[in-house]
Specification:
- The chain has 166 residues and is of the alpha+beta class.
- It has a single domain, classed as Hypothetical upf0131 protein ytfp (Roll).
- 28% of the residues lie in helices and 35% in strands.
- The strands form two sheets. Strands 1-5-2-6-7 form a five-stranded antiparallel beta sheet. A two-stranded antiparallel ribbon has the order 3-4.
- Helix 3 runs antiparallel to helix 4 and helix 3 packs parallel to helix 5.
- It is globular.
- The chain starts with 5 loop residues before the first strand and ends in a 5-residue tail after the last helix.
- The model has no long low-confidence stretch (mean pLDDT 93).
Length: 166
């Protein structure tokens, strides 16, 4: 089946089109989305021991921005494998900016960490996506200000950042 009838709302590292397309080369970018009543966090425990993005319910005026992609069923299964069991995949009503609301799948953490920071390269993925899709400047600044650790695995860091031309 090749129908692209699954919409994914990416609010973390997959906001970066280069990052998402490196994982799912045929995914189709739909545009920017906004989820009200949630806030972006960097508190999901990753398999590499660092923190990654999640979202949590918050004050109704809170907002999480992200990127919407159209996927087919095979791509959705692949993304489920990539994201792993540390996330619950939930279908939520997301505002597709300029187009109204859509039902979109997103990955919400189920494994949390309080004492660990994200690695520098991970924050760079999130920041690259936020800048690429021209999210609000205060949102971009909050991501840029996110505390992080330098990944001691320099090979992993280089591999993660190889998709960018800097």
């Amino acid at each position: 089946m090749t129908d692209r009838n699954i919409i994914n709302f990416s609010f973390g590292s997959n906001m970066s089109t280069a990052r998402l397309l490196a994982r799912l080369p045929q995914a189709q970018l739909l545009g920017v989305g906004k989820l009200s009543g949630y806030r972006l966090t960097f508190d999901m425990l990753s398999t590499d021991g660092s923190a990654k993005c999640s979202i949590t319910t918050c004050h109704p005026s809170s907002e999480v921005y992200g990127v919407l992609y159209a996927l087919n069923h095979a791509e959705k299964r692949r993304l489920d494998e990539i994201e792993g069991s540390r996330y619950h995949c939930r279908n939520l009503a997301v505002e597709h900016l300029g187009h109204g609301h859509v039902e979109a799948w997103c990955y919400i953490a189920n494994t949390f960490i309080e004492q660990q920071l994200p690695y520098d390269w991970y924050v760079q993925h999130v920041l690259a996506g936020a800048r690429e899709h021209q999210l609000p400047s205060d949102y971009i600044n909050a991501i840029a200000d996110q505390q992080h650790d330098i990944d001691p695995d320099t090979t992993r860091r280089e591999k993660e950042l190889a998709i960018y031309n800097f």
